């Protein structure tokens, strides 16, 4: 069902679903213990020696008056030293009078202790309470998706019109989905686009403070920023929202056979002792796709049982590195994608918990040909008139369905052949046969397994 387009809304079309978080003007408003914020400031000065107030404000993402207050307190404890930047010239306005801060020897010892306890270095975290409220305010079920919304979101997906009437109610329900069908029928491709129908953006925190731990949430790998709120140079926040949050597209997180149970808990790598949020926490207010269900290293029942409580009650329990447990919201679209028969995946009792079970099919011959023509056009290739007769013959001969992954892959191989041999940019029956031969295994069925 996929096309050559990356499909989805233009970022400027997205509207925040929740009200922008206001800038806190006091430590009470932060919702995080002052000692935690001061330790983070000490680490920032250690990592960026001789930073001025503007730099520290940008690094901490909080009001400059709080930075000044903490620095004054740290100076009283002889942890911070003040440096006057040397003038770079008679007319240098930037350097003149610029006060910079560094750590004393005692301050460096404090920084080492702070890093040993918690290696996080970044914007000030938000409280678990504020995070919980924001996630609830951005619940996908709060705004009803219409047929027109879903039709627009999947407008460039071939064959989607047969599924819109099912996908729309599935999105509105907020319940878990099971997408099943042959490999290459576009299950994951469609799943990544269904939330585009909401046309909304969401606020995601850089980090959350919970039960004595800072958990990093925002990840450039999984979250796409839609504004430049953090790029402002002014120390005044009146025209901006709380910089501890990032306005992003709704998260779209996919994981396949590499998924392990550790990825679903607060954890860190051997090289980086920053505690990272689990995948489902990063996916809140978005979609979390578990692809290739049944190919993970743990038994399917073990993986599925992990989701029983979150799916039923919309919250999840996480164990923290200090032994405590916290409860986080579980407000997202959870989608399982599998090439297996649903009856063979799990017992009927669990399948009943999956709100929607949606089967994907190969394309119709007219849709399949149209997709070939579209992709060839984008790749600036022509298609000889007799190619489709040859193509459909190969499909019948090898009993291969009209899977939407095939045109993109085989047009790509055809283009490689044409470029290598430096011939006219036309896909001929002969080039098609060569592409088919190298794409599939000897029995003609080894390709397209996605």
From TrEMBL:
InterPro entries in alphabetical order: AAA+_ATPase, P-loop_NTPase
SUPFAM superfamilies hit by this protein: P-loop containing nucleoside triphosphate hydrolases
Residue ranges occupied by any AAA+ ATPase domain in the UniProt entry: 173-365
Gene3D superfamilies in the cross-refs: P-loop containing nucleotide triphosphate hydrolases
Region (Disordered): 1-25
Protein name: AAA family ATPase
Species whose genome carries this gene: Vibrio amylolyticus
